[in-house]
Amino acid sequence: MPYLVEIAPGIHQIYIEAVREGAVSSVFLVEGERAALVETGPAILAPHVLEAVDKWRCGRRGIAYIIPTHLHMDHGGGVGALARELPQALVAAHYRFAHHVVDPVRLIAGTVQVWGENYAKEWGPILPVPPERVLPVKDGERLDLGGRELEVVFTPGHAPHHVSVWEPGTRTVFCGETLGSYLKSIRVVVPTVAVPFFDLEQALSSMDRVIALDPELLVFSQGGPCHRVKEAGRQAREVILATAEQVREAMEQGLGEHDIVAGLKRFHEAHLTPFLLSAGDGFNLEEELWLDYYEQMATGLMAFFRRQDLRQD
Ligand SMILES: [Zn+2]
Question: 71 C-alpha vs ligand 1 centroid, how far in Å?
């Protein structure tokens, strides 16, 4: 049975027992007179999310907005499945990319590229949302929940259409993957580089933008709430810069992808050693990170540097 945990006044994280926290994006419910869901998780989890919404005081008809931070399958893959069951909800999405929610053909192609032809078996289908249910949003746009407002903050980098959600009442920011992923048990932020559109420069500016909001609470989509805002911001910056430098140097030395991936794995494990020592016996780094974690980081950064080189030629 899924259950709701209040992580700040009126802000709940939906826990789904079958799913390890951090394995895919968590889903959050923010309540005013009406409520918003931030993130959806993959479509396969939609029945669990709905079950949690049914336990909330206003139920399905009280959900006014569904706000995925971005449309990668593990964060926003459930928009279509949830929109069908939440009759009042509008799906908020970056205005330049909102048409992909209506016609997800490109999203599906990108998902197949990363997760394979049979992605839907494991993660559920990416379903279209009727155009009248999609709300294209601009940077700074405010969504009224009645007694509470949410502000959309554009934070490209991880993906060009990535947004964060700022809740000024509790000074909470849902940062999606802007800063990476939070390994809660060892209190470390690790970068999450996505293929093919990761942009390092944008990612760094977006991290700064999130920290400049001066939040009291950062909510990572993978890893949940984190109160150590400044430290998390610093870690996120340092690690992505050091990782990018590794990849850049390896490319300049002419190393192939296989060696770059192996180098990144060694580098990250060395960087994480002091934190790993503090972890309990049950902690397993390989399990905390997802399949192809280092491959995605290497190929995403290599693609970024190649694009940058092309621009400079
Ligand atoms: Zn993502």
Answer: 7
CA of 193 to the centre of ligand 1 (A): 8
Mean pLDDT of 99-125: 93
What letter represents residue 102's amino acid?
V
pLDDT for residue 283? 79
> Is the preceding omega at residue 68 within 30 degrees of 0, hence cis?
no
As its CATH architecture, domain 3-238 has 4-Layer Sandwich (3.60)
Instruction: Tell me the per-residue pLDDT of 134-165, one tens digit each, with 9 for 90 and over.
Output: 999 999 999 999 999 999 999 999 999 999 99
Crossing angle of helices 229-252 and 257-277, in 10° steps, is 150
**Cα 183 to Cα 203, 222, 284, distances in angstroms:** 19, 8, 11
Measured in Å, residue 192 CA sits from the centre of ligand 1 at: 7
> What are the sequence ranges of the domains in the chain?
3-238, 247-312
Cβ atoms within 10 Å of 308's Cβ, excluding its own? 13
Dump pLDDT digits (tens) for 7-56.
999 999 999 987 877 788 999 999 999 999 999 999 999 999 999 999 99
What separation in Å is there between the alpha carbon of 121 and the centre of ligand 1? 19
